[in-house]
Design a protein that fits this description.
Length: 129
């Protein structure tokens, strides 16, 4: 399965309209952030968990789109929402225990919050349909 991330429309803030595209770019930013950090072994698991939870958001959205039923779709989107919230937890823990670029972490936290809000809105709106 190949996913096309080359052609996408941007909103007025310069972010992709598609939540799948947006979560992909967020995951990519998290990976690049971790790649640029220098840390002691004790912090390895924090960064590992951060990458796992951040990349899980988009992976579950993509899986949900390919779901075989509406229930399947909702379950994958709910997992994506949980992963977005978990990502915020790891970012806060890294921010508060390490010497990292606090502004970059703040930006990542804001994006994780926006993604979580979008996914939550999609789930809430899907219950009324």
């Amino acid at each position: 399965m190949e996913i096309e991330f080359q052609d996408f429309e941007l909103n007025e803030e310069g972010k992709p309209y598609s939540i799948r595209h947006r979560s992909y770019f967020f995951s990519k930013e998290v990976v690049l952030f971790v790649k640029g950090c220098q840390y002691k072994q004790v912090f390895h698991s924090l960064f590992d968990q951060l990458i796992r939870s951040a990349s899980s958001i988009g992976a579950n959205l993509v899986e949900g789109k390919a779901g075989v039923s509406r229930k399947d779709w909702k379950n994958f989107f709910a997992i994506a929402l949980k992963s977005a919230n978990e990502t915020k937890y790891w970012l806060c823990l890294i921010r508060d225990t390490m010497e990292v670029d606090k502004e970059k972490v703040r930006a990542l936290l804001m994006e994780a919050e926006e993604i979580a809000n979008i996914i939550a809105a999609i789930l809430i709106n899907s219950k009324s349909t």
